[in-house]
């Protein structure tokens, strides 16, 4: 599927530079430096994969020590499964940048994405740093969004401009991700910036609220990456008042804008899912709890049989029903379950709905964006997750690519 | 992968007949009648999928009423997701056979496999019954094993002949299954017969012990079927003493033979997995509990990224490590984890093993049968599950076939 990247709006206080370090790819940028204005605050969420990558361990540690001044991101090598050597490599990369900019090592957050299990070529990365620094620019977002791509086919970059009685502010974010996507607290890599001034605790809350319905509700292949990270930073350069109360109207607006940008980025990742030809929303309603609704939604979204039927545009609802039936929902009353494709009711009362015709189901499946809706008839909770189909192209990409 | 079906041994007291009812396929048999000698005992396990098919509901009910005399099996239509009409269809099919043979309706167990959500053509099925009955024969196993196939490429049929101080007995079993395979208490359809005489309770225990390491330890695509069923029947025609004590040596021999036949059938299903080119054993050792070992093994076995790497014969161990890291194992000490491909140690101490070479990993991956071994370093429990790779052929089959 094609993803449109609308024009971005720069964020005052954020400069981005990039360079070609030759880490894995030839003839393209693979190194990004993001500079945050002094006094910026920063929030982050990281993968829950227990085999998390070296840069995740180092970035988590640095965040506990001081406010970050730089993000240092490379693609082509994940620096994961690399043991102590990997930790030393992540810290060394930060040190090279710290020396060039005269800051502390722990003011730098490292991020990596790409092949797992290979040594990060720290020397090549260090050699390209001067070029990245010399290109630091408030308009560097698109080059940066391109430089962090791996199997992505398009850069992912979205902005919101918010009006406020006291002025205006901006939220702009970029992300990469296409395979190994079942984020757990964050997606592969996402960076969202605002020029508002926001206290750390509120910023962290804002980020956590935003990732739940967006990055934490998407799946391409059910595989949680070792390198997932999502960072939100606030530079305070908008001229608006500082946000330090959760009740502030300005905070509400910020949360709205951040969630909206995260949602755009998350859906762009699913649309650009490896081999994807469809964007599929799976909505589960009337569950006993949100966790139960998510369990059913993810069971459908991960079923290879459902996903191949979606690829074939085949309204093969038996496979969806079988996925609902095997999900972990105790004492499901199957005669209360309804299954809808878009606004077409397919199943109710334990069997095929009376008015259902194959032609009506086919019309929904032929579209590029498809809604699967399951009503469980048990309670009032609901959840929506987003996924894509499973195509022969997915197999080709992942049989050929060393990720 | 090709599956060899060794010559089968008929079981005294079991006759099988088959016919072409034209339920879905043209020019092939799709209907099987299995006749059990009077006095036979019968054990069965069924799918835990809550959207279980009509024949599963009817067979479960009939089993509580009396000893079955006939099994009635069709392929091409699963009679699942068909509501009350489906239940009536399953009972009607049994009634047609009962009328022809002068037995009770509840002495017949119905089984169906094939497309979900379409009405079972009861009339066509009934019309073909006389032909199936006229072909009843102790040597009908291979024709029957062929008639129950759907996307299977080969029939699956195995036998054991056991010697005993008091004589000899036989265990012969057939199964079908290729996709929608993640059995939960049983596989798609499997029928195992012995000519021993065995009490019902012992026979049920024997079956449950046999399915745990076999049918309940395989997965092709993680999708549990609505129609899974496994039946074990004992005709008592061997001339050996009746088995009615769990301590009997004869019972131990029976359990050994049944488990061995079930294991052969289960592995044959994985080898014949849709699009499969590899048979992969995933062994997890030193876990805190068997459940934990199975959780890790299934997370690896279901990972599309691991499965596409297997298809490509790519020793991409980072993907295996990422799957271990995202499985639900609290407080995993990653520096205690070892990862082996066959007898090649790839990961220990949290990173790549010192002596590991890509060539050594490649040699293991090039084989048709691959062992992935993960040592967790937490306890003494272990589990092994069996799976296959994910190929572009899997996508083609499931995008084209309406299952």
Summary keywords:
homodimer; 403 residues; alpha+beta; L-amino peptidase D-ALA esterase/amidase; Ubiquitin-like (UB roll); 2 domains; 11 helices
Descriptive notes:
The structure is a homodimer of 403-residue chains. Chain A has helices spanning 54-63, 83-101, 122-134, 141-147, 200-211, 249-271, 290-302, 304-311, 317-326, 358-365, 392-400; strands at residues 14-19, 31-36, 41-46, 70-77, 108-115, 156-164, 167-176, 189-194, 218-219, 229-234, 279-287, 338-341, 344-348, 351-352, 369-375, 381-388. Chain A is of the alpha+beta class and 403 residues long. Chain A has two domains: 14-271, L-amino peptidase D-ALA esterase/amidase (4-Layer Sandwich); 279-400, Ubiquitin-like (UB roll). In chain A, strand 4 (70-77), helix 2 (83-101) and strand 5 (108-115) form a beta-alpha-beta unit. The longest helix of chain A has 23 residues, at 249-271. In chain A, 59% of the residues are buried. At the A-B interface, helix 2, helix 8, helix 9, strand 14 and helix 11 of A face helix 2, helix 8, helix 9, strand 14 and helix 11 of B.
């Amino acid at each position: 599927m094609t993803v449109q990247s609308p024009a971005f709006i720069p964020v005052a206080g954020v400069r981005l530079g990039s360079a070609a370090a030759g880490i894995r790819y030839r003839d393209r940028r693979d190194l990004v430096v993001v500079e945050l204005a002094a006094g910026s605050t920063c929030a982050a969420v990281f993968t829950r994969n227990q085999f998390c990558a070296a840069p995740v361990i180092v970035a988590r540690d640095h965040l506990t020590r001081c406010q970050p001044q730089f993000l240092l991101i490379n693609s082509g090598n994940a620096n994961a499964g690399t043991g102590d050597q990997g930790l030393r490599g992540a810290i060394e990369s930060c040190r090279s940048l710290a020396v060039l900019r005269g800051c502390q090592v722990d003011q730098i957050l490292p991020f990596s994405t790409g092949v797992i299990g290979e040594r990060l070529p720290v020397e090549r990365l260090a050699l390209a740093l001067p070029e990245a620094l010399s290109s630091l620019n408030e308009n560097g977002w698109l080059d940066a969004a391109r430089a962090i791509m791996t199997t992505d086919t398009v850069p992912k970059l979205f902005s919101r401009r918010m009006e406020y009685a006291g002025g205006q502010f901006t939220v702009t974010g970029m992300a990469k991700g296409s395979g190994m996507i079942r984020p757990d607290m964050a997606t592969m890599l996402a960076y969202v910036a605002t020029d508002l001034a926001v206290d750390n605790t509120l910023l962290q809350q804002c980020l956590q609220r935003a990732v739940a319905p967006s990055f934490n509700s998407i799946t391409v292949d059910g595989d949680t990456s070792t390198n997932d990270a999502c960072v939100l930073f606030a530079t305070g350069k908008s001229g608006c008042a500082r946000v330090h109360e959760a009740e502030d109207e300005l905070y509400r607006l910020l949360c709205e804008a951040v969630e909206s940008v995260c949602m755009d980025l998350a859906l762009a990742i699913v649309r650009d899912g490896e081999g994807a030809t469809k964007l599929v929303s799976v909505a589960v309603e009337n569950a006993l709890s949100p966790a139960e609704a998510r369990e059913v939604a993810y069971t459908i979204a991960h079923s290879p049989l459902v996903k191949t039927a979606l690829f074939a545009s085949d309204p093969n609802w038996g496979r969806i029903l079988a996925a609902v039936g095997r999900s972990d929902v105790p004492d499901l009353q199957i005669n209360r379950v309804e299954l809808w494709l878009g606004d077409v009711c397919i199943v109710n009362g334990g069997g095929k709905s009376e008015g259902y015709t194959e032609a009506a189901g086919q019309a929904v499946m032929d579209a590029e964006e498809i809604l699967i809706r399951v009503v469980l008839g048990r309670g009032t909770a609901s959840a929506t997750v987003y996924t894509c189909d499973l195509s022969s192209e997915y197999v080709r990409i992942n049989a050929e690519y060393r990720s």
